[in-house]
Amino acid sequence: MKRGKKTEDAAADEENDTGSASAKKTKKAKEPEAPILYEDPPDKMTCKDGREANMKITSWNVDGLRAWVKKNGLDWVREESPDVLCLQETKCAEKSLPAAITSMPEYPYKYWAASDEKEGYSGVAMLCKTEPIKVTYGIGKEEHDKEGRVITAEFPTFYLVTTYVPNSGRGLVRLDYRKTWDVDFRAYLSELDIQKPLVLCGDLNVAHQEIDLKNPKGNKKSAGFTPDEREGFTKLLESGFTDSFRELYPEQTNAYTFWTYMMNSRSKNVGWRLDYFVLSSSLLPGLCDCKIRNKALGSDHCPISLHIAV
């Protein structure tokens, strides 16, 4: 997701000063506040019903696969060692994939989707240690599927769906399209859920509640925080799905997964939580933990990981 976040209004920090002009001149400048960082707690490996996690899934918007590989993103992946790695915004046609990732022996089963019409745009990937029963691409609607935004893998007890949800864009030029996407994608997920429960992961390009971004007041007309986009996510949850991070950490503040490259936003932790693991409600008893790996660099997003017993 790319956008410039509005800077906070400095005037809001000023106090009324009824003193003399000379007093104003000698008034000390306000010290900048230290950023409040999110510390990812130790991984919980046991779920509510007492089972141990037996699957780890990692999702990362890499903001360009080739650049991310050059920034040593694969070193982090090997250390994290998920059973399945899902990537978004790969911006890379299959013919141009770096050999460093196509030849990874740790993940013998690799699946790629890219935009049919625009080179270097959108794109998702899924890398698996064990072979899925079946893998499909898209959601069955050409207007969406031509942009290479969805891969679905069927495993014995659940579906795994990774997606890069369309950004509404600067000036909200694609908001109407995004609203259509939200309806169609929700219908696709609901149809899958009838057959088997599912895990949805990826960059969903929405901060659902005010707690999910640093500056909600200044961004109510920004892509990713419009009422329409937030309502679209609410309707998804109302369809029988759960935001796994908020299920486990309902009051956690300052937990973000995206920071614009501008204005030193990441070091200040002026961010947005745009990346999610959304689960079918029937999978909740097996939910162990949802992690925000915000120390991992290489993109304007950080990776997230799910521990689950399935």
Automatic annotation (TrEMBL):
UniProt site positions, description: Interaction with DNA substrate: H301
Site (Important for catalytic activity): D275
CC cofactor: Mg(2+); Mn(2+)
Entry keyword set: Cytoplasm, DNA damage, DNA repair, DNA-binding, Endonuclease, Hydrolase, Magnesium, Manganese, Metal-binding, Mitochondrion, Nuclease, Nucleus
Record's catalysed reaction(s): Exonucleolytic cleavage in the 3'- to 5'-direction to yield nucleoside 5'-phosphates
CDD domains cross-referenced by the UniProt entry: Ape1-like_AP-endo
InterPro entries in the record: AP_endonuc_1, AP_endonuclease_F1_BS, AP_endonuclease_F1_CS, Endo/exonu/phosph_ase_sf, Endo/exonuclease/phosphatase
Site positions (Transition state stabilizer): N205
Residues annotated for Mg(2+) binding in this entry: N61, E89, D203, N205, D300, H301
Entry note: cofactor: Probably binds two magnesium or manganese ions per subunit.
Location (main, coarse): nucleus
Assigned EC number: 3.1.11.2
UniProt key word 4Fe-4S: no
Catalytic residues in the record: Y164, D203 (proton donor/acceptor), H301 (proton acceptor)
Highest taxon above the source species: Eukaryota
Domain named Endonuclease/exonuclease/phosphatase: residues: 59-301
Designated name of the protein: exodeoxyribonuclease III
Organism listed in the record: Notothenia coriiceps
